[in-house]
Every structure is written in structure tokens, then in C-alpha cells.
Amino acid sequence: MIEDGNWDESILGPPSAWPACLKSAVDIMLPSHAQIVMFWGEQYVALYNDAYAPSIGLRHPQAFGRPAKENWSELWEDLKPLLDRVLHGGETVSAKDRQFYIERHGHPEQVYFDISYSPIKDENGKIRGVFCIVSETTERVRSQQALKESEERLRVLFSQSAAGIGQTDLSGRLVLVNQRFCEMLGYRRDDLVGVRFQDITYPDDLAEAERRFERLVNIGESFDMEKRCVRKDGSLVWTAISVSALRGDDGRIRQVGFIAIDISASKDAQEAERHLAAIIESSNDAILGIDLGMTITNWNAAAEKLYGYSRDEAVGKSVLMLVPEERHDEEPKILRQVSAGSVVEPYETQRRRKDGRLVDVQLSVSPIYDSSGKTIGASKISQDITARKEAERLQTVLIGELNHRVKNVFATVLAIANQTLGRSGTVQDEVGAFQERLTSMAKAHDLLTHRDWQRADLLALVRQVLEPYPPERFKIEGPPVLLPQKAVVSFSLAIHELATNAAKYGALSAAQGKVRISWRLGEGHEGANARLHFRWAEQGGPTVKPPTKKGFGSRLVERFLAAELNGRSTISYDPAGVVCEIDAVLDIDA
């Protein structure tokens, strides 16, 4: 290009006319393998060698022999001060990895060069140009930057990772650990470095860990395993550890790297799941799981026994195979309740066995949730209540028969009383009173039969005894109370006697008379039993006078009832109305 080029004579003129210093500089530049560019004169005309040409990309060859500003316009404000320092200041400017902004390939780039700019002087010592030896270091700088960024990411990963990370030598001695690994084991870093991994491994897991470590050291075989580590305080932590060889440039194993994750929580969860699975499998209750499509997903041994289907026969089938046709609406209704988050109370129903027989069961249903808390199915516990239902049916028959026979006894006693006792008015009145008392006992007996001879509701008992009287004459209030069997007949007779006396002599004998009946519950002396406070108060009747002698009714209330109920009972003959108060201990086991 120098020998054959058409030179702009207004800038440099032909090479034959160049000054000796320029010719000498060119002669040094052209054969050099170093990247060299010269900027000559006040216009900084660019001349460069073959080694330099690739560094200016698409600007070659038009940049050759032209003022630098024409082809380095985008970096001219950066480049010109450097050239001026040499041309006008006589300095030698050098820098390592000097950054420049250029557009040599049609797009902007940040590039880096090692530069050495020195003056070209003529025979009179005048500086005529700038001799630039450069070496592009862009790739090296970018590689160093990438390496630095990578190292920074690794440093952050190492120091802030949620996993324990470290290195050991080939004997297993820890040479590097991060903070997370120290936290997992409860040590400070200075205490942990230098410790052999064998010394912090739980003895039961040590043999397998050592065997795998030796294979890694000998043949480079990486491994993953779960093992327990012993913390500084002696407690154990379950870890999932991944171990691999770290090789030098020669390919030989120099150290061992590991990543350890604390899996104690998941191990505890697995143990809890195994424990729960064992409980479910060994339960005497049939337990099965279904999804929202009513497909059976789980089936324990008790379910096999109760329903007759094996696990393989049941899992994957519709739960409706267990439901009689007339009850098919039960399952969708249950799933709608479960999906809506409603509580499904235990209920009794029937299900069909594999052999076609119906079995009485009590079902308890609970929702099954996924990890996000979404309902994905239901767990069902089935208790076989066939024996109990048979017993209940038999008991109903026996109680009905007993009730019938007792009523026959009452009827026989009444008939004997009518035939045996005299016909005179006084005796007849006594017979009537006897009949009424016996009838009251019979009604109390009816209440007991409705509750399997165990207990009777106090409110129902009061209302039943007072049926012969207008209900508007009474004000009745009190909490729900179940009277034990022992107290039912006693209370029935007592209320009957109080009502009979009120109808003859007290509030119920007057048109405006009323009776207020109330009760409340308190804690018994030993905490287990309840103390009942019962009150009968008459008002609006004739002025009350104490009787000259106490009849059967008064003695029944004050003596017999108190003895039966392990309490006390009193009748007060207040002029405004008779008041009876009963303080009784209700034995919950009676």
C-alpha cells in the first residue's frame, strides 16, 4: 500500500518526499510482528502495519494514510488528549488494559489495549509524530472479568448458601467449610477446620461413609448418601451429602469437595408418616382414603376384613361399590361438605360387603389436604357396629316386653286395691289417692323406658306429672338435667304430692293461683357429681296455715326423698304460698 498507493499530496505526499525520520519509523514498523500504528503530523495521519490492521476491523484499509479523526471519530475525544501529550508535550504515555470505546465492526464495543505511545523526532529534535506500540487485551480482560464475577458468585454461593459446603484432604480432614455447615453442626469455623469427617459421623453410619470415601479417593467415584452427623452438643443431625473429587491440572485427585443439606425435618416427617402408616395398618377400624372423584386411594387390613375386598381389589375402584343403591347420595354429599370445609359429624349407616351382606357401620370422615392446604380427598374410618345394633334391637324388644309386664303389674295392683279396700267415702278417697300415686310411678317408668332405663329428663318429668293441670298455671325454668334412675320415681312422686296438695288447699285451688318451678345445677362435694337445687313456690292462693299433722305427701317429700337423693328437702308454709326446696346430689353413676 505504501509502494503502490496513490497518496494525497496535500497530506503526506509521495513516500519519496517523506522526511528521513518518517521513513525510518516506517521501516521499523512494517516488518514488526507487534501491533504498531503511527500518527504523523498535526492531523495525526495514520500509518500502521499488517499486525495492527485486524484491530481496527472494517476501517481497514480506508483508515490507512488518512487523518485519525476521520476513522476514530467515536473515540476521538478520548484518543486526541493522549496523542497531544506525546506530540506537544513530549511525553511517553503507557498503560495496561487501557479501555477504549470503538465501533470497528459496525456496533459499539468496549475494548482494551496495552499501549506505549512515544514521540518520533526529526534530525533537529522536533517531534513530528507519535509511534504507538499496542497489544489488544480485550479477550484477556473479559476473561478476567468473567472469572472474577464467577469467583464472586462462587464466594457468595459458598458463604450464603443454605447448604453446607466444604472441602477435605484425602485423609478426610476438613480444610474449608462455609458458615452454614458450621451452623448445622454447632461449631465455630476455627473449631471445625482440621477435624476429620470420621470424627463427626455417627458411629452407625461411619463404616459405609468410610467405604465410599475410600473408593472416591482411589478411583474418583463420586457418591451421594444420607448419614447422621454428631453436633458439638452431642445431638444428631440428618444430612444428605454429595461428595466428589477435586482434581489438579495434572488430573490427579488433590482434595474432596462436599455439599451437605440438613434433612432432619424431612426425616422426622418420614418417621411420623411411617408411624402413622403403621397405626393405620394395624388399626382395628377399617380406614380408607378416597379422592374427590370417589376413587379409593388407600385401604388398610381392617378394611379388607370388614368389607371382604383385598387392597388390590379395592384401590382404584369407586367407593360406591360399598354403598347400597338406596344410599348412593351419601358419598357425593359427604365430599361436598369436605370440599367446602364443613365438619362431617360421625354418623351411622350401612355398607355392602363383597359377599353382598349389609353391615352396620359408624363412619367418621376427615379431609385430606395437599401441601398447599387444598382439599384433595377424604379419609374415612368405618367402625363395625353390627353387634351393638343387634344388642340395641334386642334391648328394645326386651324393654318393650318388660314395660308391658310392669304395666300389667300396675293394672293388677290397681284392680286388687279397688276390690279389697272398702267402699265408704273416706276409704274411697284413699283408694283414689293410691291410684294417682301409682299412676305417677307408672308414668315415671315410661320416661325411663325411653332412655334405656338409665336416665330421664327433669323437664319432661315435671311436664308429664303436671299434665292434668292447666299449663298456664305454671312457670317452669331450669337448665337441661338428666335424673339418674334412682331419682326419677322419687321426684315424680314428690311433684305429684305437691301438685295434689296445691290443687286441694293451695295455689291451684284459686283462680289466680300460680306455681313457679325452677332448678339450677352446682358442683358436688367431690367435683364428679352435680348438686341439684330444686324449688317449688306457690303464689296467689289462699292464705297458708301450717298443718296440724303431716300427711303421707309431706313425709314423702321431707324424709323419703331426702334419703333417696342423699340431700335435704324442706317444705315451708309461708302465708303467701307453700315453698318446697330440694337440695339433691345427682350421682352420675347411679
UniProtKB/TrEMBL annotation:
Enzyme Commission number, as recorded: 2.7.13.3
Keywords per UniProt: ATP-binding, Chromophore, Flavoprotein, FMN, Kinase, Nucleotide-binding, Phosphoprotein, Photoreceptor protein, Receptor, Repeat, Sensory transduction, Transferase, Virulence
InterPro entries given in the database record: HATPase_C_sf (IPR036890), PAC (IPR001610), PAS (IPR000014), PAS-assoc_C (IPR000700), PAS-like_dom_sf (IPR035965), PAS_4 (IPR013656), PAS_fold (IPR013767), Sig_transdc_His_kinase_HWE (IPR011102)
Reaction(s) catalysed by this chain's protein: ATP + protein L-histidine = ADP + protein N-phospho-L-histidine
PROSITE patterns, A to Z: PAC, PAS
GO biological-process terms attached to the record: regulation of DNA-templated transcription
Oxidoreductase among keywords: no
Enzyme class per UniProt: transferase
Domain PAS: 150-220, 272-342
Boundaries of every PAC domain copy: 96-149, 223-275, 345-397
CDD domains registered for this protein in UniProt: PAS
Keyword Nucleotide-binding: yes
Gene Ontology MF terms: ATP binding; photoreceptor activity; protein histidine kinase activity
Name of the protein this chain belongs to: Blue-light-activated histidine kinase
Species whose genome carries this gene: Ensifer oleiphilus
Organism placement in taxonomy: Bacteria, Pseudomonadati, Pseudomonadota, Alphaproteobacteria, Hyphomicrobiales
